[in-house]
Fold Gustatory receptor.
Amino acid sequence: MLWYSILHQQKNLKLLIRSSCICTKHYINSPNKYCKRFVGLLILAFHLLPIFLAALQPHLYDEKVTTFWAFGYKFEERKYNVASCCIGEYIQYVVFLQFFCIVFLSYCLLIRRYGIQLTQFHLSLKSTDYNVLIQNAVEVLNDYKKLEENIRLLKQVLSMPLFLILLNSCLNLYGGLAFFLKAEKVDVFAIQFTIFSLIGIVAITTLIFYSSKILEVIQEIKVTAGHIIEKHQLNIPRGGKETFSLNRLEKKNVIFLSACGMVDLKRSLILSIIGALFTYGLLIINLK
């Protein structure tokens, strides 16, 4: 479903990616080279992790598990059992781990990029001289309108994928919690549950962090516009026509990134997920 949701919004995603790379004269920052290296290392790790895990599995599982990928058929020579197990495990990790990690990393970078553009707009608004700001008020408002349109499109495009990513991450966390609370001893399946649970934690926290950052910066822009108006309102002639654009900017609505319109991605969502996990863990303990 995640793949089909991406294909369905392919054109809009390309438009958002192109728009995120366009910097006007107000925006002077560029992606940090260390950030690029870190992202490159993450992508390399996501590609190497399935290979490492697939090569590790045959040495940890018993023969019943290794014959699963051969549909119950047991080869006379063990090397063929190992080969079939490695191939099956590799495909499983590519589909359920590598693809998921690359998708959520891509969305995090896209959301982060628009958060950076909003932050740069806010810094430009704060640092620009008042007289210069009034002269270029229409241009400033048009720049913000373009950012606002892109963020609304971002909200529309990522609505379903964010829901699927959060749902998958929460299910992985619940599955890992149930396994470790019920398991009497740690076995080879603990590796899978640990990895998927850690990936789920990282996906939830990073997506919520960058999504809530957009909300916070928009609120800061509104506050800054209001502060500029209050600071100079005594010096405004002709009924304040010069600050019309700033008034429009202050009255703009705040945009929330959400998962299918059901869950707003705010920082408080992390506390809700932790509370749900705690409650779920208590239920499992009481049912043992």
